[in-house]
């Protein structure tokens, strides 16, 4: 018995804020760019990336995630950043 929702997709699609966060929704970054690297943050409650300066989501007040969770992705991004810095030194 699911209660008032017919299936879990309805629960996932319902936003706690009523859609206020759509004003702050961040566009997709260019190919091979990290969202976090260009300043976008993720709200785990709303399920979107936002462009916002604060530490808390502007609509639901949950803490925004500012770093990746996966250590493999963190390592990949760090290596790419080091390569770009090395190229900048030689140019």
In a nutshell, what does this entry contain?
The protein is built from two helices and three strands. The protein has 91 residues and is of the alpha+beta class.
Output the radius of gyration.
17 Å
Strand order of the largest sheet: 2-1-3
Spatial gap, N to C terminus: 63 Å
Helix amount: 25-40%
**How many β-strand stretches?**
3
- Reading the helices and strands in chain order gives HEEEH
How would the global form be characterised? elongated
Overall pLDDT, averaged? 75
* Count of alpha/pi helices: 2
Beta-strand portion reads 5-15%
What are the salient characteristics of this protein?
91 residues, alpha+beta, three-stranded antiparallel β-sheet, 2 helices, 9% strand
What features would you describe in this structure?
The protein is an alpha+beta fold and 91 residues long. It has one domain. The chain is built from 2 helices and 3 strands; from the N terminus they run αβββα. A 3-stranded antiparallel β-sheet has the order 2-1-3, with no helix packed on it. The model has no long low-confidence stretch (mean pLDDT 75).
Task: Give the topology.
Elements: H1 8-13, E1 41-43, E2 48-50, E3 64-65, H2 71-90
Antiparallel strand pairs: 1-2, 1-3
């Amino acid at each position: 018995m699911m209660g008032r929702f017919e299936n879990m997709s309805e629960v996932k699609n319902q936003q706690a804020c009523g859609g206020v966060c759509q004003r702050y929704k961040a566009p997709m970054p260019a190919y091979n760019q990290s969202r976090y690297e260009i300043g976008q943050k993720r709200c785990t409650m709303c399920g979107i990336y936002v462009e916002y300066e604060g530490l808390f989501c502007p609509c639901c007040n949950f803490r925004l995630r500012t770093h990746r969770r996966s250590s493999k992705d963190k390592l990949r991004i760090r290596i790419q950043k080091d390569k770009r810095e090395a190229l900048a030194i030689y140019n």
